[in-house]
Amino acid sequence: MLNEERKRKILEITNERKSVSLIELAKLLDASESTIRRDLNELHKNKLLKKVHGGAISLNDILTQDEPVLQRQDLNTGSKRLIARYGASLVKDNDVVYIDAGTTTGEMLPYLRNTHAVYITNCASHAHILANYGHEVHLACGILKAKTDALVGSDTYRYIEQLNFTIGFFGSNGISMEEGFTTPDPQEGEIKRIAYDHCRERYVLADPSKFDAISTYSFAAIDKGFIITDSAAPKKYKDLHNTIIADLVDIV
Amino acid sequence: MLNEERKRKILEITNERKSVSLIELAKLLDASESTIRRDLNELHKNKLLKKVHGGAISLNDILTQDEPVLQRQDLNTGSKRLIARYGASLVKDNDVVYIDAGTTTGEMLPYLRNTHAVYITNCASHAHILANYGHEVHLACGILKAKTDALVGSDTYRYIEQLNFTIGFFGSNGISMEEGFTTPDPQEGEIKRIAYDHCRERYVLADPSKFDAISTYSFAAIDKGFIITDSAAPKKYKDLHNTIIADLVDIV
DNA sequence: AAATTCTGTCATTGTCAATCACTATATGAA
DNA sequence: TTCATATAGTGATTGACAATGACAGAATTT
Q1: What is the pLDDT of residues A44-61, one digit of tens each?
Q2: What pLDDT, on the 0 to 100 scale, is given for residue A75?
Q3: What CATH number labels B72-250?
Q4: What is the pLDDT of residue A189?
Q5: pTM of the model
Q6: Residue A233 — very low, low, confident or very high, per pLDDT cuts 50/70/90?
Q7: Pick the residue with more confidence: B122 or B213?
Q8: Which CATH number is B3-65 given?
Q9: Digit-coded pLDDT (tens) for B113-122
Q10: Topology (CATH) of A3-75
């Protein structure tokens, strides 16, 4: 890979993920630690990212937002990221993977490294990112919603209806015992429902704040598919037979 | 292979892949490293690509990143912009507008102000931008190509085949009397062709550099639809009955 | 204290610019 | 026509330079 090309990718990855560890960059870009280190030093000198002990963090975010809170320990072990990484590790060769729209599933994208799988999504920005990682990506058709970049409507519905996925990953605004998985937008909910129904294995990624919340549209019952969360989830949800607690040791 | 022909191919490859190594170019074009090196030096001097250690990087890519640097007067009166603005001014209420993938059509997006029209495209980034301007946007399905963000393949073909557009805007890498409108990627070409066929009014946006160039895949004959260009176009093309010369005074 | 990450160094490999020799083509004089 | 000369494009070679990966010892984090 060309030097400049690699540096550009480092920037891209860093900005996309807000923060990234040096070792991960080395693996992702198939270069030695020394090389990445040199790149980071240069990019730091040019004020294109901020180099921190163990990796780098995006500057865009520090400038626009008010949370310079990203610290070293967050590089790999932040709760949301842990859940995302666990989910991503489940993708096997030859899988046909459905990726739901939303920020939670978005966290997964950088960790989806299996290029012997096919990815299908209804989110234009997810598709863009995955394609740039070199994956085969199929994007659903339909009406594009500006805020979420999600495709919705009858075209989207019919497109997904005709497909069958071996595995699917979903976000959910609310998870409750009675109402199951819920989402605020009925249009997006309909798409979630049909996609969910067409997956053989289903995983809902949920940080603990999602539990006991109920949103407008229910797209699946709670006992359909697995919930991936972390140890801070309420006990009654952790005790469900289909709840998975993501932990670093689970991820190879 | 002719000198000029080789240089044109180097540019094509570089822009298509965003970055390419010198050795790869030498193999692809069956020329010595020395020759490619000389070509790259020249192309770099003429600001047609960026030569970096080990190969070359497309300028298109860098330009889109540096866009905010462009001067305001360039934005409105540059030849490409003028063509794009003229094209955009043709959209009427209730139009069903097809927007082709590509940088040329991308220039149009900021000038598309008619929110009483529906926009359909096969380019994820175009769709994203249009949706954020508040338009109703339909995006085609299919396989997402990383470099161009264009959707291609049989799904895309079928999706577009079932639609009818009142007006369509297209880019073209080459325009010649004999071969008509041509584009380098056959997959994208097929989509262009079917979309072109399903438009009532067709406009090809072309800066003067596109004339007398021939690319791989021909998606339409030159007398089908209108060409929008500027006064610097070769006379024989300006004399065509279906060529429109974009001029500031034409745009309200 | 242990583990991880950082800095600086070194040998290796890859790339660069400059140069030379070869070929094909053109030009004009004998 | 035939020959010498000029010109442009190409491929190979070379020493100089840049990039890389590995490693050791220092610094930092846990």
Answers
A1: 999 999 999 999 999 875
A2: 67
A3: 3.40.50.1360
A4: 97
A5: 0.83
A6: very high
A7: B122
A8: 1.10.10.10
A9: 999 999 999 9
A10: Arc Repressor Mutant, subunit A (1.10.10)
Nearest CB neighbour to B128, from listed A130, A143, A144: A144
Q: What is the pLDDT of residue B157?
A: 98
Between CA B3 and C1' D15 the distance (Å) reads 29
Nearest to B143 among A132, A134, A137 (CB): A137
Q: Which nucleotide comes closest to B23 if you measure CA to C1'? A: C15
A–B interface: beta-carbon pairs under 8 A: 85
Domain ranges, ordered by start, for chain A: 3-75, 79-250
Which residue in chain B is spatially nearest to A124 when comparing CA positions? B124
3-state secondary structure A186-219: HHHHHHHHHHHHCEEEEEEECCHHHECCCCCEEE
Q: CB-based burial of residue A62 (10 Å sphere; 0-12 exposed, 13-18 middle, 19+ buried)?
A: middle
CB contact under 8 A, B155 and A155: no
pLDDT over 80 at B251, yes or no: no
Pull the structure tokens for residue A204: 């809902």
Q: Are the beta carbons of B52 and A159 separated by less than 8 Å? A: no
In angstroms, how far is the first alpha carbon of chain A from the final one? 26
CATH of span A79-250: 3.40.50.1360
Q: Residue A149: list chain B partners with CB under 8 A.
A: 128, 131
Q: Is A235 exposed, middle or buried (0-12, 13-18, 19+ CB in 10 A)?
A: exposed
User: Taking CB atoms and an 8 Å cutoff, what residues of chain A touch B141?
Assistant: 138-142, 155, 159
Q: Does the CB of B31 fall within 7 Å of any strand C atom?
A: no
